[in-house]
Amino acid sequence: MNTQLRINLWSSPRNISTAIMYSFAQREDCRVVDEPLYAHYLVNQPTEAVHPGRAEILKSQPQDGEAVVRWMLRHDFGPKAVIFKQMTHHLVALDRDFLPRMINVLLIRDPRAILASFSKVVKAPTAADVGIPQQMELFRQLKAEGGLAAVVDARKLLLQPRQVLATLCERVGLPFQQNMLSWEAGARPEDGVWAPHWYANVHKSTGFQPYREKTYDLTPALEKIAVQCAPLYEEMLAEAL
Q1: pLDDT tens digits, residue range 182-220?
Q2: Distance between CA atoms of residues 14 and 109, nearest Å
Q3: 191: Cβ–Cβ under 8 A, 6 or more apart, which residues?
Q4: Number of independent structural domains in the chain
Q5: Residue of 81, 71, 91, 89 lying closest to 23 (CA atoms)
Q6: Which among 92, 186, 203, 211 has the fewest CB atoms less than 10 Å away?
Q7: pTM for the full model?
Q8: Which residue range(s) make up the domain with 103?
Q9: What CATH number does residue 115 fall under?
Q10: Is 2 in contact with 76 (CB distance < 8 Å)?
Q11: Which residues are CB-contacts of 118 (< 8 A; sequence separation ≥ 6)?
């Protein structure tokens, strides 16, 4: 019987999910997988957002989400744990019965920060494009089923990376390791082919960057989405480590 820990990090885009993936990649007992459901999402995308590198992404991954889920559940990845960095909005046109068979963590961030960053790459995004309503739906489902291991807020993690990571590791059944706090600058072999469009900042980093308070000047359309998503974020934030 395969006893590997299979851990989903369900994130909104433009969060610190890639940095957390890099953090877990420093461990010898973990393997990381970058957004395995991205191609599946693109062929089932319910919005009009144009994702950069779409053709390359579709070539780089299986497009059958159910087949990807079977692989996530059954493949022997070798180490004690495998970390799947996932986008919440990629959880579309899929039976969710695999979720209780895995460990599920939500990564959240202030919607204003997400929208300000995401809109620099994808023009005129909707709330569905940034996955916050879907994240709230998943949050409530996992809580109701007793399947939510942890909620990690970007701001809280950047303010206290060691403390938050240590608690997260405890929640998912791994001992904390000090080497999770730093990594070498540059790309990683696990990066998806979309990395050139999205990962410039994390490729410059060597660890979690100190938190800096920012203000965001959003367009009226983005401001409307931020206001819509704010109470959803606050509800999830109340459960964050």
Answers
A1: 999 999 999 999 999 999 999 999 999 999 998 999 999
A2: 9
A3: 34, 199
A4: 1
A5: 81
A6: 186
A7: 0.96
A8: 5-237
A9: 3.40.50.300
A10: yes
A11: 13, 14, 125, 129, 130
